[in-house]
Write a structure and sequence with these properties.
Number of strands: 18
Shape: globular
Order of helices and strands: EEEEEEHEHEEEHEHHHEEHHHEHHEEEE
CATH topology of the largest domain: TIM Barrel
Strand content: 15-25%
CATH architecture of the largest domain: Alpha-Beta Barrel
Helix content: 10-25%
Number of helices: 11
Largest sheet: 9 strands, mixed
Length: 444
C-alpha cells in the first residue's frame, strides 16, 4: 500500500486554517499533523507544498457531461479530465442526456459508463417526468443523489408542468429534489413579444425573455410545494437577488429548503453579453450586476448553501445565434475553483467559506459517505492550490471536449497544482494520470 506525505502546507478544513501535513495510505487519509513536525521516512511519495493551501477535493453537485448521446461535444472521459485539472474530485451528473436518465435501465447504464471512464468520483440524478414518479421508490438511495426536476424548459426538454404531477413528485419521495425553476408561461409570453422575423432575438434580450419574474414565480411555487409536502428541496442555479428572499439563513443542518449558486452567475452579468455574446448564454440567464453582487454577498452567510458549475459544454458552432437560437450552457468545471479563489482575493469570501460551500456543504446536504472533509479515515480526495504570478486562460489548456471557455483571456492569480482522488495522484503540475478511475459516491 502506497504511503504519501503532503507537508509544509496550509490546511483549510472545517472553518480553520493551520500549517501542517496530511498522510495518505492507499485510498484514505490516515493522519493530519498540526505544525512543522512530521515523520521524515517511510513514504513512497513526499510532496513539499510550501506556499500552498491543501483543501478537500471539490464536490460539484451539478454537471452535464453529455454522455450518452451527446458525445460530439463532451463525454465522461473528457469532462472528468477537465474536472481533476480544476481540483474537482466528485461530480453529480444531470439526466438530460440521450437517452434521458428517467428509467431505471438508463440510470444503471449511465452509472456503468461512469465506472469505466470517469477520473472523478461520480453519481447520477434520476430525472423526473410528468409520469415516472412511481419509479422513485425503486431507486437505490445509497447511490442516487436525488431527483432532478425541470420546472422550466431547458436543454433536453424535460419540462414537468402539470400541477398534479408536481404534487406527486414533491409528495412522493423523501429524497432530495433539485429543481430548475423558470416559469414556462412567462418565458413563452416574452418569447412571442421579442421574437424577430428570423425566429431569433438579440442575445442581450436573453435575461429579458428568461426574466427575473420567470425565476421568481417558479422558485416560489417550488418552495410552496416543498412546504406543503415536507419535501427536501434544493433550488438549482439561483440567479436573482429576489429569489434569495425565499431562503433561510439558518445553518444547513436545520434546513429542508436550500439554495445553489453557480459559477456563471457569480462571474458574469448582463454587461458581458456585449463582450462574449452567446458564450455566456445559460439557463437561467445571467442577470444584472445588482443580482451578481447580491449572490456574491449571500455567500458570506447561510442563504446560499452550495456552489456548483452547471458545467454544460456545447460546440462553439452550437453557440451561434442570439437569445433564441444559440444553445444555452457553458463549460466551467476546469476553472471553477480558480473563480472562487478570485472572490477570495477580492475579499468577497474567505477561503474557509469557499471550502464550506464547495466541499463541506455538498457532503452534508447529500449525506455523502466519508468525503468533503480532511479527516482521518475519510477518502483522500484533496487539492493543493497555490497563489502565483498571474496567468491567462487560453483555449489550448482547455480539457473539455468542446475546446473553449468563456474565461479565455481572463487572468487568475492561483494555480491548481495537485489533485488526489481516493489517494490516487491524478493531476500534478499540468499532467493528468488516467490510470485509476473514480468511485461511485455513497449517500447515507
Amino acid at each position: 500500500m502506497n504511503r504519501t506525505l503532503i507537508h509544509n502546507v496550509v490546511i483549510v478544513n472545517e472553518g480553520q486554517r493551520f500549517k501542517g501535513a496530511v498522510v495518505i495510505e492507499g485510498e484514505c487519509i490516515t493522519a493530519i499533523i498540526d505544525g512543522q513536525a512530521f515523520p521524515e521516512a517511510g513514504y513512497d511519495v513526499v510532496i513539499d507544498g510550501a506556499g500552498g493551501f491543501l483543501l478537500p477535493g471539490i464536490i460539484d453537485s451539478h454537471v452535464h457531461f453529455r454522455d450518452p448521446g451527446l458525445t460530439h461535444k463532451a463525454d465522461i472521459e473528457s469532462e472528468s479530465r477537465a474536472a481533476v485539472a480544476g481540483g474537482v474530485t466528485s461530480v453529480m451528473d444531470m439526466p438530460n442526456t440521450n437517452p434521458q436518465t428517467t428509467t431505471l435501465e438508463a440510470w444503471e447504464a449511465k452509472m456503468d459508463n461512469f465506472a469505466q471512464h470517469s477520473l472523478t468520483n461520480y453519481s447520477c440524478y434520476f430525472g423526473a417526468t410528468n409520469s415516472n414518479y412511481e419509479l422513485f421508490g425503486k431507486l437505490d438511495k445509497r447511490l442516487t443523489p436525488g431527483i432532478k426536476l425541470f420546472m422550466g424548459s431547458s436543454t433536453g426538454n424535460m419540462l414537468v408542468d402539470r400541477k398534479e404531477s408536481l404534487r406527486q413528485i414533491f409528495g412522493g419521495t423523501d429524497m432530495l429534489i433539485m429543481a430548475h425553476c423558470e416559469d414556462q408561461h412567462t418565458i413563452s409570453e416574452n418569447t412571442a413579444k421579442y421574437k424577430g422575423d428570423d425566429g431569433d432575438a438579440p442575445i442581450e434580450l436573453h435575461p429579458v425573455i428568461r426574466s427575473e419574474e420567470a425565476c421568481w414565480l417558479s422558485s416560489r411555487l417550488a418552495v410552496e410545494l416543498a412546504q406543503e409536502t415536507g419535501a427536501r428541496l434544493h433550488i438549482a442555479h439561483i440567479s436573482t437577488a429576489r429569489e434569495l428572499s425565499l431562503l433561510s439563513d439558518e445553518p444547513l443542518t436545520q434546513k429542508r429548503i436550500t439554495g445553489e449558486v453557480c459559477i456563471s452567475h457569480l462571474m458574469f452579468n448582463d454587461g458581458d453579453y456585449q463582450r462574449l455574446g452567446a458564450r455566456v448564454k445559460c439557463n437561467p440567464a445571467v442577470k444584472g450586476i445588482a443580482d451578481q453582487q447580491a449572490l456574491q454577498q449571500a455567500l458570506q452567510g447561510n442563504l446560499l448553501d452550495t456552489v456548483a458549475t452547471d458545467h454544460a459544454p456545447h460546440l462553439l458552432s452550437e453557440k451561434q445565434g442570439g437569445a433564441l437560437k444559440a444553445m444555452s450552457g457553458m463549460p466551467s468545471i476546469q476553472f471553477s475553483l480558480n473563480c472562487m479563489l478570485e472572490l477570495v482575493d477580492q475579499g468577497i469570501i474567505s477561503i474557509e467559506t469557499l471550502v464550506q460551500k464547495m466541499c463541506h456543504n455538498p457532503a452534508l446536504l447529500y449525506h455523502i459517505e466519508k468525503r468533503g472533509f480532511i479527516r482521518p479515515g475519510y477518502q483522500a480526495d484533496l487539492v493543493l492550490v497555490r497563489p502565483t504570478e498571474p496567468w491567462t486562460v487560453t483555449s489550448n489548456i482547455v480539457q473539455s471536449k468542446c475546446g473553449w471557455s468563456p474565461l479565455e483571456g481572463h487572468s487568475f492569480n492561483w494555480r491548481i497544482e495537485h489533485t488526489f482522488v481516493n489517494g490516487h495522484h491524478v493531476f500534478a503540475d499540468g499532467k493528468i494520470d488516467e490510470t485509476n478511475k473514480g468511485n461511485a459516491l455513497v449517500f447515507n
